[in-house]
Amino acid sequence: MEAFKQSPSTSSSAKVTSKKYKQQEMSNGVVNNGFSSMLLSQSHHPPDVSTVEEMAMLEKQGLSNKSTAVEMNGGATVGQEAKAGIESQMQHGAAAADKAPAWKMYSPLIEAFSMSANGRYLMDTSQSADDFPSLHGIRVVSMLWVVLMHCHMFSLTGLDNYLEAFSHLQGFFFQIIANGDIVVDTFFLMSGMLVTYWTIKRLKQRKDNGDIWFWIKFYLYRWWRMTPVYAFIILVACTLLIRIVKGPLYTLPAMGLDMCKRNWWTNLLYINNFYPVEQSEICLTWSWYLAVDFQCYLISPFFILLLYRKRALGVSCIAALITASLILTGVLSAKYGLPVTVFGSPSKNTTDASADYIYTKPWTRISPFLLGMLLGYAFSSMRSRQVPINRVRYLGN
Questions:
Q1: Which tens digit of pLDDT belongs to each residue from 352-382?
Q2: Is 0.85 topped by the overall pTM?
Q3: At a CB cut-off of 8 Å and minimum separation 6, what does 152 contact?
Q4: Bond preceding residue 276 cis, omega within 30 of 0
Q5: Which of 46, 47, 361, 397 fits as disulfide partner to 18, beta carbons 3.0 to 4.6 Å?
Q6: pLDDT digits (tens, 9 = 90+) for 291-327
Q7: In this structure, are residues 372 and 187 in contact, taking their beta carbons and an 8 Å threshold?
């Protein structure tokens, strides 16, 4: 009890301090379970200032420890709740995947037939650094030219007075249509150019001649790129086309239906320009171009490697083969009396014979493909495709 005997001034100040401390505790809603409750209950005399400060520090430390424990327990609870939430989401996602429709597993295949996706792809005008913008214009003009020629050619089969229609073939401006078959050579040229350019570029990146798998993928990629769409067109020609056409040219799909039912497999093997032998038996007669292009593609690696490794020898071989093809075409035309163009007048034989001997055979159509290969090699050897062209300026008053 001696420790609590104080002077009046000290006692009064301690009372004030104790009163303020109690008010603060009550205002904060703190329940004293520590030393302050024990000491204050032992005597009616309030403790001194130093004792009160020690008691406050001890209580503060106790509250802090409790708060820390609560926070740790809360953190553990939050962590457990988060873990449980993640596991719940994973289980929900797995259940959703199980309940997802089967067609979503094959979405890339289904998207291939999407009108919106294909429309965005076809209308995309973005270009890469290795693109050839001029080829797009050549393709458009050439395709319009081919369509115009075929519209006139097939329309003649539905006319009663086709002899009178043939009399107009001698006109000067009609020669644009009559010689439209030559425009197919532009597609052969672009094909040879692009396959040579891209293949040499890949060989330069590899820094070798390409292994066996490189050339196997070279052929498989070409076949796979063309054949699925090609097969779908044949399927439409065999099933749907006969049911949706009307008019004077109705017999053409009917004829194509019979031929495709018998000889569709020759198209998928790209031999339909050789078998069947008769031109009238070919499934989709216009598909001879795909067969010739694929056959030229088959022999292209030989010339690509020559150009890549021995430029002089490669150029010489290609030039010799172009010359031989031109000579052979002239010899066949003279021997069988074949017309120069599809609309031309034959001297000894028919236009079908012209297609059988000249028009659909690779040895007479390979010249533009080989010329395109030389052009593709030239582009692959250039550091820049920005070729300066002298501009002609017209000066006037």
A1: 677 778 888 999 999 999 999 999 999 998 8
A2: no
A3: 177
A4: yes
A5: 46
A6: 999 999 999 999 999 999 999 999 999 999 999 999 9
A7: no
